[in-house]
Amino acid sequence: MSATAATLADLVRRPSVNPMGRDLSGPEYLEGRVTDYLVQRFTAAEIPWARQPVTPGRDNVVARLEATVPDAPTILWDAHQDTVPAEGMTIEPFAPLVRDGRMYGRGACDVKGGMAAMLVALDHLRASPLPRRATVVFSATVNEEFGFSGARALARLWGDSAAVPADAAARQLCGGRPVAAVVAEPTDLDLVMQHKGAVRWRIRVRGRACHSAFPERGNNAIYPAGRVILAIEALAAELLARQPDHPCGPPTLNLGTIRGGAGVNLVPDLAVLEVERRVLPGESPVAARDEVITRIAAACESATVEHDPPFLESAGLADASADRAAAAWIESLAAAVRVGGAAGRRTAARYGTNASVFAEAGVPSVVFGPGSIAQAHTADEWIELAQVDAAAAALAATVAAG
Q1: At what angle do helices 32-45 and 3-12 cross, to 10 degrees?
Q2: What letter would DSSP give residue 305?
Q3: Are 153 and 86 in the same domain?
Q4: Is the Cα torsion angle 386, 389, 395, 400 positive or negative in sign?
Q5: In this predicted structure, what is the pLDDT of residue 164?
Q6: Tens digits of per-residue pLDDT, 266-321?
Q7: How many CB atoms lie within 10 A of CB 126?
Q8: Alpha-carbon distances, residue 386 vs 148, 186, 383 (angstroms)
């Protein structure tokens, strides 16, 4: 088994399921097993590392491999530790299986394959006799799948001096703001230069409960919730006609969940909806959310409708090519990918990543990694191992000065 396959297998067999906002616990939840593995790996390799607490039981890991040439810049390689849940999978989620050149398992594609490529690239750079023309800061962030809180905590390290005390070790190791970031996601070895952001929040429609034998004595919350749904549906259709030719696709609005009522013989006093508005690069998440709120208010003037603060809010990722220093590193990565035989195209995506958080913090970012988004989050998630090898080689080649 190759170094990349062995590393990926190590990661897959360590569950790191994101509970996705639910009050769940158990051996498969949260990132601690992957965090501990990374710490042990860096300790054995004598690569300096630090943990950055984000929330209880969830730590980012930061490691640093110094350049060997003077006045070298710092670049960031980031991969998130968490995966989506494993319910409904048709394979054993945490028993990595290799078949026909593919590795199967939860997270193999999103994004432990990309993490494995970065870890092996660090090993290659450390062992190579070639000079390293950049310092690489590697970050393994938590909670990417439900809120980007790990990426936001990492971005604090490049902020002002009003540091969070728990950040001190990671801040010292990270150093200053990197000139560019490569964020691991399954891109089929293409370079995603721009992608959407999103704002997600809960809507609470209030009513008054009573016995269903006397419904006139209550106020059924589900009825005005229906008007909320129709307002969302109408605006969602309108949005699809706005900038339909944008490389990231048009802005979108989606109603993801609705919960209301405790039994058929009760008049419900509450209905809760979860909505997501995906925004284009340059669009304001705040303004996008405000438009949804305004539309709902117009459709439900007499109802009690409350909007929780967003539990996720991120801008879209703009193309980093305008930054001269970042553009040089991006082109170096694209050239290395092409040397390895892949197309290395510059493209856009409809999903969101940690990259938009880093870009907002002043670090021009590109999204790159092995695997296809078509396999991410699937019931039989898998990745082509040859792509993991190719990604590791390309990442190392951007840093090693030949």
Answers
A1: 150
A2: E
A3: yes
A4: negative
A5: 87
A6: 999 999 999 999 999 999 999 999 999 999 999 999 899 999 999 999 999 999 99
A7: 15
A8: 29, 13, 9
Specify whether the CB–CB gap between 49 and 42 falls below 8 A: yes
* pLDDT score recorded for residue 257: 96
Distance CA 379, CA 374 (A): 11
The share of the chain scoring above pLDDT 70, in percent, equals: 99
Residue 185 near residue 110 (C-beta atoms within 8 A): yes
Q: Provide the pLDDT confidence category of residue 163 given band limits of 50, 70 and 90.
A: confident
- Phi first, then psi: what are they for 232, rounded to 5°? -65, -45
Q: What's the CATH number where 73 sits?
A: 3.40.630.10
What Rg value do the Cα atoms of the chain yield, rounded? 23
Give residue 335's domain range: 3-195+316-399
Residue 260 contacts residue 273 (beta carbons within 8 Å): no
User: Each residue of 29-60: pLDDT tens digit?
Assistant: 999 999 999 999 999 999 999 999 999 999 99
Does 218 lie in the same domain as 101?
Answer: no
Q: How many domains does the chain fold into?
A: 2
Q: Which two tokens stand for residue 12?
A: 């897959």
Nearest to 62 by CA among 52, 71, 72: 52
Taking CA atoms, 143 is separated from 6, 60, 84, in Å, by: 24, 9, 10
Is residue 295 within 8 A of residue 234, CB to CB? The reply is yes
> Do residues 191 and 202 share a domain?
no
- The one-letter amino acid code at 248 reads C
Can you tell me the distance from the alpha carbon of 200 to that of 180, in angstroms, rounded to the nearest whole number?
28
User: E strand or H helix at 40, and its extent?
Assistant: helix 32-45
Are 363 and 291 contacting, i.e. CB atoms less than 8 angstroms apart? no
Which of 313, 347, 368 is the endpoint of a domain?
313
DSSP for 338-355 reads: HHTTS---EEEESS--TH
In angstroms, the CA 295 to CA 273 distance is: 15
